[in-house]
Amino acid sequence: MTANDDRELMLHAGQGAGGEAREAFDTLVTRWQGRLLTFFVRQCGDRELAEDCTQEVFVRLYKARDRYTPDAQFSTFLFTIARHYWIDVARSRAVRPDLQRGLGSDDQDDREDRLSRVAAAEPAPPAQVVQTDDLERMHAALARLPEPLRDVVRLGVIEALPYAEVSAILSIPIGTVKSRVHAAVQMLRTLMSDAHATGTPLRRHEGGRT
Amino acid sequence: MSGCDELRGLLIDHVLGQTEGEEAARIAGHLASCEACRGEEAALHSTVGMLRSGPRALPTPEFRKSLAQRLDAVERRERHVARRRGRTAAEAGLTLWKLRLLRSPGARIKVAAALLPFVLGGAWWVVHSMRSAERDDDKVIQVTPPKDRSAPPLVDGSGGRGVPDRLQPPPAPPSGDPEDTSSKAIVDQLVSGDPSPLDRLPVPAPIEEPKVAEGGSSSASDVFRQRHDLELPRKGGGTAPPPVAPAPAATPVTRALDWLVRTQRSDGSWAPGDGEPGLDTGTTALALLAFVSENCLGVGDVAADPRERAAAAATRWLFERQSPSDGAFVGGSDAAAHVFCHAVSTLALLDRHVRLTAAGRGATADLVGEHDRIERALARLEVDLERLVRPSANDPALARCAGQNAAWAALTLATARHCGDAFHLKPTGARLTESVLERLRNEQPELVVATTHAVDAMAARASTPSDEAWRRAVEKVLGDPAGIEPSLRFLVASALAATRRGRVDGGYADFERRLEKGLGSIQSPQAGFFDSGRRWDCFGGGTVYETSLGVLSLSVAARADDFAAMRLRLEKLGGDHTARPK
Fold first, then answer.
1. How far apart are CA A120 and CA A124, in angstroms?
2. What is the chain A residue with the closest CA to B578?
3. How far is the C-alpha of B64 from the C-alpha of B59, rounded, in Å?
4. Which of A67, A177, B381, B574 has the smallest C-beta neighbourhood within 10 Å, fewest atoms?
5. Are A76 and A155 in contact (CB under 8 A)?
6. Mean pLDDT score, B47-55
7. pLDDT(B5) > 60
8. A 130-189 residues with CB < 8 A to B
9. Which chain B residues are within 8 Å of A102, Cβ to Cβ?
């Protein structure tokens, strides 16, 4: 399950269609589908849209399989496609506000409702259940970050990708990744702290964890 | 403490596991001795933990199943492309013209037995007719009654640019044209029983139509088809094209197409004329669709055949309208018109593309590039359809003609989904279509029911049995084929062709005769265009609009056959590659 395995699987998949090549790709899908789906659910808060996005990324990946070269981590390749695709989706949703099922233009109640539905639909350890309020607060804070900072948080913090990979995916220097991570974390903590102080965005919050 | 100040900037990197070697050791050493920094580290851990602790989404089995289907489609597509690229023009022997042979009596029976003909054809018809259906349901139809319904047949030598002076659509109340079976009886036949796709029925013997020369009792559609086969130069073939010269005896369809040729602008487009201003893209797309449905695909002898030339120029013009950024075919003056222009353009180019693909014309047309462009357009259309779930809530302009737009979008997408070619569509698209139609059911019941019938027919699944809305839609078309909104007429005819044609009860044949007669009454005997003299709310109509939909209404049955044959052909091509090696 190492990165090298992923690269080899991808190379294998790129050597044909069906048969072993397809099995190699299916293995990659099995390995990465949950993470990718979660990535998109976090982006949009909409399970159905996230599944569509995840499928589309795998389809695009499959279409591009013969062009894959192992000079980068597989995850870099995958998240680059995913991010570009999400940018397309977000743009089209920005043009069409009616499609903003999960992003910022929604009113807060809708968003919270959706998040709780997503959370309810997924098995989560008890520790996460009790954190729901903070979790939603954190989502709200994350949504308020400038997009460049959100990007590094999603990839470098949430997805725990190495800075070098984040740098490659976002096409920015590693130093910029670092400084953005620092700035983003500071801003998140400030926003969280403000939210605690004012009781927003969740009115039922009763005080907190951290 | 300067040590703290220096290291705190690295703490987040440390927490994220992004430090290593000497740096990591230095930080660890400092933390061991500095409680304040340990507190900061704990806070950072908490923040990071919270960011990472959201719900983990787990894919469902349906997700994997659907993805597997899409990957299968990618592989099929790749093999199609590989095959096309490896094929020479000479090898691309199965021309559309030859495909027509599949409609010979024997082959047709087999096709009908395979159920697909009607299904596919129906889809296309439906797409076109949906548009009109919405208008009808909007009650737009009653907006402007014909000026003089009892007037003599239109005589118009103006080239059809203006509103015809008079028209004589038969008033034909549902009760009756004395020459024909009573309307009520026909409607009863048409809406009774199970309107499921014909593939579910025993193949009826009467589908074996007689030759044109023999006259006989075949249905009106058979007569039309035979006439077209005789008189229309069928392009699309490489090896043995039929004679180029137009047939000496013009049919209603050829005369209408020739009028379109004459009124096409030099850049390849058509003006909306009396229709909605700014709707050039949608108008041109419908006109192209009329040519395409007569297999004028713009790849034949463009120099010698004006219809081929017109189709080629319109295709080029439409592709030039496609936005490189989002794949939309740009046109219209508001959101509703945008959707309309995009939907019908996608349909026209998709129809043409599928016909070319089935005919193996990869060597003479850039089908690979076109396929990608159409796929992008389809993706965009899915977005448009999604917007129509809640049109008024988001963009007030979208609520205008929402039903008609939904119908065109739904039919286009269903066509792409079921045509046998490999287009990548969202797995949730079919469900989305259903929800959009359901939302519109109360507002535009006739449009929705006709669309639903058509989509179901394309998907080769049983449709909801007759209901009041369906009966009303059929009655409207049957009662006054010339006075009904053209796209509703087309939609109903398509759905009927997909589900009723070939039935032994004969209701459909009567329907076609009525349709032919009614359209004949609004066709300019000299210029060739169709015009009811009415104008419709949605997108205005106009002479080009009515003429295009007139052609489409008259070629519903032939389209059904064409698409059945093409689907079989494409599935056969795909089938060669579908089996995955071990």
1. 8
2. A18
3. 7
4. A67
5. no
6. 79
7. yes
8. 131, 134-135, 138-139, 142, 153, 156-158, 160, 162-163, 178, 181-182, 185, 188-189
9. none
Task: List, for residues B458-493, the tens digit of each pLDDT value.
Answer: 777 666 545 788 888 888 888 888 888 888 888 888
**Residue A62: its chain B contacts at CB < 8 A?**
71, 74
Nearest one of B286, B225, B184 to B514, comparing CA atoms: B184
> Which of B510, B509, B508 minimizes the C-alpha distance to B495?
B508
**Is the predicted pLDDT of residue B144 greater than 60, yes or no?**
no
The answer to whether B567 touches B354, Cβ cutoff 8 Å, is no
Q: What residue of B is the nearest CA neighbor of A127?
A: B53
* A113 in contact with B, Cβ within 8 Å: no
Residues in A closer than 8 angstroms to B395, CB to CB, are 96-98
Contact state of A162 with B55 under an 8 Å Cβ cutoff: no
For residue B530, list its beta bridge partners. B523
Indicate the range of B134-143, B340-349, B534-543 predicted with least confidence: B134-143
Rounded alpha-carbon distances, angstroms, from residue B543 to B312, B320, B321: 21, 24, 22
Does this model's pTM top 0.90? My answer is no
Each residue's pLDDT, cut to its tens digit, for chain A (210 residues) gives 444 488 888 888 888 777 888 988 998 998 899 889 988 888 887 888 888 899 989 998 888 888 787 777 888 888 888 988 888 787 776 654 444 443 333 444 444 444 444 444 444 433 333 356 777 788 788 888 898 899 999 899 988 889 988 998 888 898 999 999 999 999 998 888 877 776 654 333 333 333
Determine the Cα–Cα distance for residues A5 and A1; give it in Å rounded to an integer: 6
CA distances, A93 to each of A19, A59, B153, B323, B383 (Å):
38, 21, 51, 17, 9
Tell me the nearest-neighbour CA distance from B327 into chain A, angstroms: 11
Task: Give the gyration radius of chain A's Cα atoms.
Answer: 18
d(Cα A102, Cα A94) in Å, to the nearest integer? Answer: 11
Angle (deg, nearest 10), helices B543-554 and B116-137:
150
Q: Model confidence over B360-414: pLDDT tens digits? A: 765 555 677 788 889 899 999 988 888 887 766 667 778 888 888 888 998 899 8
Residue B536 pairs with which residues in a beta bridge?
B540
Residue numbers of A between 13 and 72 with CB closer than 8 Å to B: 17-19, 22, 25-26, 29, 33-34, 37-38, 40-42, 47-48, 50-52, 54-55, 58-59, 62-63
Q: Do A59 and B74 touch (CB under 8 A)?
A: yes
Q: B540 forms bridges with which residues in the sheet?
A: B536
Task: Determine phi and psi for B364, rounding to 5 degrees.
Answer: -110, -5
Facing B63 at nearest CB: one of A51, A139, A209:
A51
A104-128: string of b/e by CB count within 10 Å (b at 16+)?
eebeeeebbebbeebbeebebeeeb
Quote ipTM for the complex: 0.76
Q: Which residues of B touch A29 (CB under 8 A)?
A: 64, 67
A45: left (phi over 0), alpha (psi -120 to 50) or beta: left
Cis before A201 (ω within 30): yes
Task: With CB atoms and an 8 Å threshold, state whether B390 touches A158.
Answer: no
Nearest CB partner across the interface for B52, out of A18, A29, A158:
A158
How many Å lie between the alpha carbon of A22 and the closest alpha carbon of chain B?
9
Are B54 and A62 in contact (CB < 8 Å)? no
Contact B317, B348 (CB under 8 A): no
Name the one residue in this structure whose structure tokens are 């199965």. Answer: B94
Percentages of chain A per state (helix, strand, coil), in multiples of 5: 75, 0, 25
Nearest 5 degrees, angle CA B113-CA B219-CA B456? 45
Tell me the nearest-neighbour CA distance from A79 into chain B, angstroms.
17
